[in-house]
Specification:
about 280 residues; mainly alpha
Length: about 280
């Protein structure tokens, strides 16, 4: 079947509206709080990025500072990432599980799906990385700049294609209860067959809207931080950034849930609510 972007968006909006309270609770726990923790306890990346970048040496120094900052605070980012992975699966279970789980049951499903999700992510990441390096290295061996640039372009296109093909891995884990990571990736590949371009276009449109909202919010937030300053400004940045990220995540999850429902042919009421 052909993917209908309009129908998927309408269903995503309906699911968010019908389940807004429970979505807000779970998203607050697994996305807002981790984001706020990173903003308050993690490295001040804004201060680092404010460093001058007018010379190659300054750019190199900035890169080193960023690497050091991430290296010193890796555990914060690791904890936040794990929490968000559990949150993704929990939200998908809330929206689409036929058993109508409670919030607690959905969170338990998210925890159970964590290991398959990590395994699937590592397989895809490793596979894409190896393929990317192989393509670029192969054409770089020719020493022809045009071929090297072509290799990089091909690798980027292949990476984007793979990301679209495996974009439904989380819904497969959460909704279809598939635990084998290879089976998860195969199922996602099958579901997206024949609709990769439509799905890509759908995601691009959503991304553009998100970027516009982020830019406007960023300008407003920058003004507030400058006016407030100090730790209070950092707190405001963390809260606003966390809320924006939480809202964006709920939209993405609802879109994935609606996309999976349409491509899998499942008949689940978009207006079904959960306790």
């Amino acid at each position: 079947m052909k993917f209908d972007m309009g129908a998927a968006w309408n269903e995503a909006v309906a699911m968010m509206a019908a389940n807004r309270e429970v979505l807000a609770i779970v998203a607050g726990i697994f996305f807002f709080l981790p984001s706020l923790l990173v903003a308050l306890v993690g490295p001040d990346l804004n201060a680092i990025m404010a460093s001058p970048m007018t010379t190659p040496d300054e750019v190199e120094q900035l890169s080193e500072q960023i690497m050091v900052a991430y290296g010193e605070s890796w555990w914060i980012f690791a904890l936040a990432t794990l929490a968000q992975m559990v949150g993704y699966i929990s939200l998908l279970a809330l929206l689409r599980d036929k058993g109508r789980p409670t919030v607690g049951e959905a969170i338990a499903m998210g925890a159970k799906g964590l290991l398959p999700a990590i395994a699937a992510y590592l397989i895809v990441t490793l596979g894409i990385s190896v393929l990317f390096v192989a393509i670029v290295a192969l054409l770089s061996a020719t020493g022809i700049e045009a071929l090297i640039a072509l290799g990089a372009l091909i690798a980027i296109v292949v990476t984007i294609y793979a990301m679209i093909k495996f974009s439904l891995a989380a819904p497969v884990i959460a909704i279809e209860k598939v635990a084998n990571p290879i089976a998860v990736l195969k199922r996602s590949w099958t579901l997206t067959k024949g609709n990769s371009f439509r799905i890509l276009l759908f995601f691009i449109l959503i991304f553009i809207v998100y970027m516009v909202i982020s830019m406007v919010a960023g300008l407003v937030m920058a003004g507030l931080i400058t006016a407030i300053g100090g730790e209070a400004g950092k707190l405001v940045q963390g809260v606003v950034g966390g809320l924006l990220g939480m809202a964006a995540t709920v939209v993405v999850v609802a879109v994935l849930a609606a996309t999976h429902r349409q491509l899998s042919g499942a008949s689940v009421s978009a207006s079904a609510t959960f306790d």
